[in-house]
Amino acid sequence: MSGAQPTMGAMVTMGHGDLDQMVWHDAWPRPAPAAGEVLIKVGACGLNNTDVNTRSGWYSKAVTAPTTGGAFEAVNEEDPTWGGAPISFPRIQGADVCGEIVGVGAGVNPGRIGERVITDNWLRDPDDPQDMNKTGYFGSERDGGFAEFTTIPAQNAIAIQSELSDAELATFSCSYSTAEGMLSRANVTKDDTVLVPGASGGVGGALVQLAKRRGARVIAMASKPKHPEVARLGPDRILPRDPDDLRSALGDEKVTVVADIVGGSYWPTLIDVLERGGRYTCSGAIAGPMVNLDLRTFYLRDLTFTGSTIIAPDVTRNLVKYIEAGEIQPALAATYGLRDLRDAQAAFIAKEHTGNIVVLP
């Protein structure tokens, strides 16, 4: 039909709730790049906790349960997302895109067409990129990559030269940038011993690799069936997911940093094994956001706690350099077709795989 808007296949989230809120559309309107933007043909898009938690509304303070991926009985209208504010629906989620630039908007060099890129998912004010209050997230505040095509500001599409597959490259953007942001906030160096709960997940595995890259000693924690896969990431030691006596399990190890995305009831045990002057850094709470803290432990042991969500503008660009240099490796667990995104999220929530799950258009 002449003059009709081009369409594409897309998995569209229609509102907060259970997996059935994700609906497949064969002919969703294909976006066109606005000024300063690029159009990407999506080769692969990774799945992460932000996709699940935003769809379910888990970020709302009305929710105190662990991440379940299902609908919650009550979700506040005013704070259901990572940024504590509503988003508009329908919304195409998915932040971790690897693909090819196939179009550019006004003001973007046409020579970028044909570039293979991965996405920097933090949408910053170009006039004030350091202001966290002016920051959004790809696949949340604007449509993302669970579709055949997507648009993003040109500065957020980072060219990459790599022999890795699109699926492998789609594992990096969220998990590895989140991990690098946590390690940066905690100022991890070669003098540290870093304890990583949940090391079998996407962010946990990235924490292991990136902490080792910094020269730190790394102790990973994961369920025993997943130890062989975790071992491939190169930790110095692997412990069970939740030892009854963590201090004894650690032996003579002196933990200076806990890099945590788990939280939950085991959290006080993690804090108790930190050395005096140690640091705790957090970017998740999949086992539950409500924890018990003895403030005496916090201040008498001179501990430092840092939250980590919005990363510095150079983090993803540095990750590209590490990838191209072969300094970090993808932890691709499984791929699913985009139409099967519900199944992919169900597997992700059930922790059926070790590493990252990616969907392919």
TrEMBL record:
Protein name per the record: Alcohol dehydrogenase family protein
InterPro entries in the record: ADH-like_C, ADH-like_N, ER, GroES-like_sf, NAD(P)-bd_dom_sf, Quin_OxRdtase/zeta-crystal_CS
SMART domains for the chain: PKS_ER
Keyword Oxidoreductase in annotation: yes
Residues in Enoyl reductase (ER) domain copies: 17-359
Classification lineage: Bacteria, Pseudomonadati, Pseudomonadota, Alphaproteobacteria, Rhodobacterales
Keywords assigned: NADP, Oxidoreductase
